[in-house]
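Second opinion, please. Please look over this fold, written as tokens:

===
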Amino acid sequence: MEKVWWKEAVAYQVYPRSFYDSNGDGIGDLPGLTEKLPYIRDLGVDVLWLCPIFASPCRDDGYDIADHQNILPEFGTMEDFYTLLKTAHSYGLRVMLEMEISTTSEEHPWFQSSRLSRRALKRDFYIWRTPNWGDPPNNWSCYYGDSAWTYDEKTEQSFLHLFSKHRPELNWENYKLRQEVYDSMIWWLDMGVDGVRLPNLQLLVKPDGLPDAEGKSSAPGWERPRELFENQPDTHQYLREMRRKLTRSYEVLMAGEAKNVNLQQARDYSGEARGEMDILFQNEHLLVDYGPGGRYDLQSLDLFKLKNILSKWQMGMQEDGWQALYFGSPDQPRMVSRFGDDSPEYRERSAKMLATILLTLKGTPFIYQGDEIGMTNGTFSEIEECHDLESKTYYARMMREEDAKPSRVMNVLSTRGRDSARTPMQWSISRSSGFTTADPWIKVNPNHGRLNVSLNESDDYSVLKYYRRAIALRKQYKTLVYGKYVPLDDMNSQHYSYLRTDKEGTFLVLINFTRGRIFFTTPLVLRGKSVERVLSNYEKEDAKGDSERIQQYVSTLFHPDREQDDGRFFTLSNEVQLRPYEANVLKLR
């Protein structure tokens, strides 16, 4: 595999609205982010990824872009952005923008022109169809559950939207539209932006004829035919066209998100010889606790299923393609609440355990703001406290059910809704967690008094300090970047273990995903090997100076290495005992 900087990088994702408010209006902004750049730099990351910051009516969280060449006024001005960009570069941070290119806002000038008449100049920038005898043009539903079509009285046609009606779908078969999109990207690259992250690539191209989906009902809006409108083959020719246009004059990092892809489709998007995306975000591991009803059909975590999904993608992208590594995002619950254990007893331990996985797998790690201090899900008791359009739509739909119980629905939204990961960054114990001097745009998690950056900075064994050490370790040993991934004990449903190995060395990663003590049976080939423990989330308990405890510990975990018995060097025994949520990274000597 080609060795390039973005494979060796670690990225940090910022949700600007909730990061830091500099002017006291309760909303995070770009000057606030600029002020906190030293914190991001000190984490050891290389790339700053900004969620959408473009001018928008924000009816769908800023993904409904109204102007591709301007900043949302709540976040600041273009001058504020340029200051952020220059400051980030001075700290050695590259800046990547998230740009939605499959839709725009209904308020975008393109759409305003498109809806003027059936012969409007930009009519074909979007997908318009004549209704079917009063019904929508086909029976597709959008991701929020209603019909994917909205009727426009002025021209007596309907436009397609796979998200909310405020985000009409762009027609990527239109050459002029594609050039306008590329020019918008180039405008930012000219300013000095280093990369773009493109969500929903699976939706760029629609099937010929927009056929009805076959389902249980012919009622409009009943079916969401992903097999029809996701990951169409023609998508790739347009992505290659985009790549040629952008890289002709710029060195640009291109990351893309494509949901519901299989391994071959993922390699098609990010294969080194394909000339499309550098890094691919896929989402199969995020569906592991979805029930038959989807996102809000809560299921308990199945570790056996999760680790086999992770292994499938590690093995499948071993030789070609490159993937993003991530557990958290502003569109998902907090990773420690979902994949770990957010109880007071185990929150820190399981947060470090998940960080160990994130930073030792093959791919480019993306850390979502707040995960580096172990932030947990926000909780909401009333729908008025929620801001996410999808959550509000789900609540309204559930309230139409005969046995609807608001408390039960709000519990689901607190567990799985997008707002649960969008609560303000917890900087300190002070009012509003140090995020703002005003009332924040969304309620602060009440646990900020015992979980914040300030407390993490003062504790040598905090989650934050652990992230810094884990990132430094990944940068020190390129085996953790390029080395082969070898899964171990695939059938075990309590622990996750694997090797990262190449000609430079071998690392053994041991993870306990449970609250209990478990045993890992050491493969024959590793028994008796001398190893150095280079990272552990039990480092505080096993710190030097507590010789009695460390000796008791190693006697049940490993056999101490007689040559260098200082708490770091061991000889692997036949069976390794792992404590609750324990994570170890061991370097074979």
Remarks:
- The first helix runs from residue 5 to 8.
- The radius of gyration is 25 Å.
